[in-house]
Amino acid sequence: MTFTVNGRKFEADPRPGQCLRNFLRDLGCFGVKKGCDAGDCGACTVHVDGAPVHSCLMPAARVHGRAITTVEGLADPDGALHPMQQSFLDNQGFQCGFCTAGMLMTATALDQSHRAALDWAMKGNLCRCTGYGSIRSAIEGKNPVSAANGQGACGRNAPAPAGPDIVTGRARYTMDTAVDGLLHMKILQSPHASARILAIDTREALAFPGVVAVLTHADAPARHFSTARHENPLEDVDDTLVLDPIIRFAGQRVAAVVAETEAAADAARSLIAVDYELKPAIFDPEEAMAPGAPVIHDKPAVSRIANAGRNIVAELHSEVGDVEAGLAEADVVHEGGFETQRVQHAHLETHGCIGWIDDDSRLVIRTSSQTPFLTRDALAALYDRPRESVRVFCERIGGGFGGKQEMLTEDIVALAVLRTGRPVKLELSRAEQFTLTTTRHPMRVSMKVGAKRDGTLTAISMRMLSNTGAYGNHGPGVLFHGAGEAVALYRCPNKKIDGYAVYTNVIPAGAFRGYGLSQTNFAIESAMDEVARSLGMDPFAFRRKNVVVPGDAMIAVDHGPHDVEFGSYGLDQCLDMVERSLADCARYPDLSEDWLVGRGMAAGMIDTIPPGGHHAESRIALVEGGGYELAFGTAEFGNGTTTVHAQIAAEILGSDPGRIRILQSDTDITSHDTGAYGSSGTVVAGAATQAAAEALAGEIRTAAAHRLGAAPEECVIGPDAVTAPNGRILLSDLTAGGGRLEAIGQTHGSPRSVAFNVQGFEVAVHRRYGVIRILRSIHAADAGAVINPRQCRGQIEGGVAQALGAALWEQVLIDGAGRVANGTFRGYHMPAMCDLPETEVHFADTYDSIGPMGAKSMSESPYNPVAAALANAIRDATGLRLRTTPFLADAIFEELVTASSSQMSRPEETESEPAEL
Description:
Layout: E1 2-5, E2 8-11, H1 20-26, E3 45-48, E4 51-54, E5 67-69, H2 83-91, H3 100-107, H4 112-116, H5 118-121, H6 133-140, H7 163-168, E6 183-189, E7 195-201, H8 203-207, E8 211-215, E9 246-247, E10 253-259, H9 262-269, E11 273-278, H10 285-289, E12 312-320, H11 323-328, E13 332-340, E14 352-357, E15 363-367, H12 372-382, E16 390-393, H13 410-420, E17 424-427, H14 430-436, E18 443-451, E19 457-469, H15 475-482, H16 485-488, E20 495-503, H17 517-535, H18 539-546, H19 571-583, E21 595-607, E22 616-622, E23 628-632, H20 641-653, E24 660-664, H21 680-683, H22 685-708, E25 716-717, E26 721-724, E27 727-730, H23 731-734, E28 741-747, E29 754-766, E30 772-782, H24 789-808, H25 825-828, E31 839-843, H26 866-878, H27 889-904
Parallel strand pairs: 1-5, 6-17, 15-16, 19-20, 23-24, 30-31
Antiparallel strand pairs: 1-2, 3-4, 3-5, 6-10, 7-9, 7-11, 8-10, 12-20, 13-18, 14-15, 14-17, 18-19, 21-29, 22-23, 22-28, 25-26, 26-27, 29-30
């Protein structure tokens, strides 16, 4: 078969049934990404004879005699970027960048008619990170934020160092490599939600051509561990085995086939015969806690499960003051229950890793992880190896959102590598991503909130029921965090919290953007809105009266000491900015009288660093030639930390971010980094970079002063030289002859500050269909001193977009047998460009005394207040209090019909009154 790829002629035959995407990747075109396997995400888009196609759907055999262009072939042969590539670069139309190649290939094929309906023209390309605002700007050729703002390196829109590689397809993600002798792994999953494996017959699978090994629980270590990754592993329960003879959810690993090809591994896993003894399964957390319920984890106290006999992973009971007395003195009490659903992270790069044994007999894992150092430590413990005999590193990562703060593939790949002695690859399919990994914790939250007539809060009572699924990874942490800042945001003398994280026989829940706060924020901010309405108070005025201000104690569960303080305070500014923007009277002439219009808001507070210690180390050196080399441990998965670290170092060293070479996320290059989770990539690892750069600046001044005969404090470091009153010396001269000046910075994540977010919406709800139109989305953030406004704006836009997806459409459905029922993007409804509004973003003017260069974290917190703000806007428009996410149109329709019928049945009401819902 002959064909051309990017102008180069090829003669090659695909494997039987091979899709064009995999065929092109075999040829080294790694810009063609694997995101969904079903033509849903567009990450694999290429041009075939000039027309864009989803290459995962096209048989490779059909390209005989045809011309294929991938993202690697968009640029001119002389290296000049295609105008669309340049526009994506100028507008930074990417975050993790995994979708960018596909976006570019679709965008470059648009004609004028497509551009006139851009949101719909791009509906076949999904992005999980950006919220599509920067992508839309790139395609339209706009540049909404000037790149020249700010005087130094910080405070301006420095471009992402990886930008040119992302838009040209040169950026390498986890699976973008060719490894000699690579074996492929496929996982056999359980069809049952609760069972015991009585026997596994692997003989037929082992006899299949190309199969090298079949691994079962008999081959795996008997050591229990947690897939969750935290600095202190004792925070998580040890309830997991690499392969377990006890099945606790449909989709759990049963066995692993390792073969010469992915096709052989796939075929052989269906030949494994498993004899199951079925056991009772339980799916509801309330029922799971009831006396007599089947025990899901019968484990000893050493596992740290709070109450295994009642399926309780963790529980929390706390009271400050006297809640009953507080409710008794209240003039208004709102009581109600709220429920949030199971949501998939849906990062476009699925979980996966490649492992091998290196020349020094070390176990090496190349993985898509937010926590390479903690994963290294866990593998060393699991396989009884010295820590220095394990290396874990990351290339660029295609999204995370908490889902990769987890060890879900590295443990079993390590087992296969150690058993076979050969390199092994495991890359989950999109269906496996839905059934084999984790989700957000579904929660039921019951609220009682009391207030006096003047709006003063008298009592807050909250009961949380968190469904952690079959394993307790992150169950305790999510429960405790959900009980934290959403409650601590409010001054109130009487607070009571009861919480339970409960095992059930469904897919495990894990870390997810917001880490419990989005669930409780929905309940608390909805309840606060109801209290304000009952009092006839404006929701902004009610918040101003009751939120914490500097000087207040931030109390959620007790009065005990903690390390959280007001490094700065911008909540007042955030409330003002959203209120002013919502007050602008917009007109919508296209809305008929069937549309009910309303406005709503919600607030959120978050600690800028996770509790319990979060450690990072950065190393920076002035190297031969006068350049800088910066090494740090935190990973880049669209969080923008690479750019921010370069800006911090450049600001201190008087340089330009583009002149600093970055090395990161590799256990070989620094001693430790807890990981890029809890929005810590800037405020923890960035603080280590600041400390390292300041130490190096001191070394440079000292060395220059010695050469110039000046005092160190007289020396000023510039981009190329150090200047003193009596002369100057080039940086390259300070390292002439191969020398280098080097410094190390470390930080430990304490004390911690707080960040604030306020979300506002104006919505229209169709009274007859229940359809929601978001007319305006407004977000104000207290991010401290914003190091890179464009990147920070993108984090906020993406957080709001992801939260809107969860509020309006997304839910992982579980059928009556405990199985995931919608394990594809097509059945899940991750938002496309046409689904989402543009979000107007405002920043408070603050400078944090704790964060590096005055910055605060801003990756998670924008997500948290979105669902409540949307529910409050819908309440304002319709009079309906929605208590369960997602807010599906059919559910709203039913409630509107019920409310209308109720009003019509009242004799004192007229026929026209339903129109005023």
